[in-house]
Each structure stands twice: as C-alpha cells, then as structure tokens.
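Appendix B. One record, verbatim.
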Amino acid sequence: MVDLLTAGVAHQVGACTNAGRPSLCRGLAADVEADGRLLLIISAEAGREVLDSVRENGRIALNMTLPENYKSMSLLGRDGEVSFGGGVYRALVETRLAAFTEQLLRHGIPPEYTRAWYMADDEHLMAIRFTAYSARNQTPGPGAGSALELKR
C-alpha cells in the first residue's frame, strides 16, 4: 500500500451523510503517518460535501488507481478526523502531483491538464486522518473486490 501511495496514483475520496447521501471528490495526496493512520489531503472547495460528511460521522473511503496498469486499492475508515492542512502539506501535494503527472505523460496527457486537477490554494488544503479498517483490491480482473490484509 505504501508503495502505491507514492507511485503516482489518482485519489478518489468518498463519504456519505448519516442519511446516506453520497459525495465524492478528487484527493490531492495521501501518506501514512508514523502512528499508522492515513493522511489524506483534499481541497476544501472541491471536497466541501466530503468534508461535511466526514465531520458528521467519520466514515471515509479512499480509492487509489495507478494509471499505468490500473492497479487499484480501496481503503475504508470510520474514524476520520478533519483538520486544516494549509501550506504545511504543499510539498506532499507537489510530490504526488509530479508522480501523477509522470504517469499521465506516458498516455499523452499534458502537464498543464494534470496540474489543473491539483489547483488549490494553501488556505483550501484540508487534512483528513483515518485508520483503515478494511482494504480491497479494486484492480480490474478476477480478484477485484477481494479483501487485502492490513498489517499494523
């Protein structure tokens, strides 16, 4: 999982309200913190509904997909905590953007297009921290949906 986080993946983030209303946004970066929790950075503008849902109930889903081979994994959490991220996470976002840009360049997608997905001012960077309680292989094929072991 840690290798996939740094490989240039696309991050899709999902949440839902207590009433079951789903929301989705693009994640900008993810990492594993020293305590084993996942750190996810999203834009407050694009992810307003996701942030509201996570604040409401802590439930969150992160899907990561590597463009070069569609290797995908989803991680679920139920203890999500939202906090202001700000400029302290700019370097992580830029690092993940560079890796994702390299992945998409191989498919002819120009850097200007990729960078547009990551346009978020520092004051809009928000952090979500959560503990993954479930991981699933989402890579297309016969193993899609199968559980993956989480090691602590």
